[in-house]
Amino acid sequence: MDPSVAVALALLLCISCLLLISSWKKNFGRGKLPPGPVPLPIIGNILQVDLKNIPESLCTLAKEYGSVFTLQMGVERVVVLHGYKAVKEALIDHGSKFADRGHMPVFEISRNGLGVIISNGERWKQIRRFSLMTLRNFGMGKRSIEERVQEEAKHLVEELKKTKGLLCDPMFILGCAPCNVICSVIFQKHFEYKDPKFLYLIKLIDENMKILSSPWIQIYNSFSSLAHYLPGSHHKAIKNFDLLHEFILEEVKEHQRTLDPSNPRDFIDCFLMKMEQEKQQPCSEFTIENLVCTASDLFAAGTETTSTTLRYGLLILLKYPEIAGKIHEEIDRVIGRNRSPCIEDRNKMPYTNAVIHEIQRYVDLIPTSLPHSVTEDIQFRQYLIPKGTTIIPILSSVHYDDEGFANPDNFDPGHFLDESGKFKKSDYFMPFSAGKRICVGESMARMELFLFFTTILQNFTLKSPIDPKDIDISPVASGFGKLPPSYELCFLPF
Question: Where is the signal peptide (predicted)?
Answer without folding.
Answer: 1-23
